[in-house]
Specification:
With 117 residues, the chain is an alpha+beta fold. Helices cover 38% and strands 21% of the residues. It contains 3 helices and 4 strands; from the N terminus they run αβββαβα. Strands 3-2-1-4 form a 4-stranded mixed β-sheet, sandwiched between helices. β2 (38-44) and β3 form a beta hairpin. The longest helix has 17 residues, at 68-84. It is globular. The termini are far apart.
């Protein structure tokens, strides 16, 4: 039996599909946000591999994981790791979340850290 998708699930999937079609060959920065944590990872969709990632769940993470300041720290961490992985042309997949609050803080911190998207 087929699963019926909610409107939110359809929006996330269509958004991700559109991004993949418009940006072939580029690395995707995917964001996951929960009530307590935020995560970001760079995914190469052509190879199906994660190139680098950062999260507020890591053991050496200094701040609490549920506010804008913590999202900025995760963004800075990710930018440093992305420089080591030599990421070039990337695009931002907000995963259906609004570009506001923690998601925006994460993206801005990654940009100030040297990523271009």
């Amino acid at each position: 039996m087929a699963k019926h998708l909610t409107t939110e699930e359809r929006r996330v999937l269509s958004n991700r599909g559109e991004l993949k079609r418009k940006n072939p060959g580029k690395v995707r920065l995917s964001v996951f946000r929960s009530a307590k944590h935020i995560e970001i990872q760079a995914i190469d969709d052509t190879k199906g591999r994660t190139l680098c990632a950062a999260s507020s769940k890591e053991k050496d993470f200094k701040a609490k994981g549920h506010n804008v300041a913590a999202a900025e720290l995760v963004g800075k961490n990710f930018a440093e790791r992305a420089k080591k992985a030599k990421l070039g042309d990337v695009y931002f997949d907000r995963g259906g979340y609004r570009y506001h609050g923690r998601v925006k803080a994460l993206a801005d911190a990654a940009r100030t850290g040297g990523l271009k998207f």
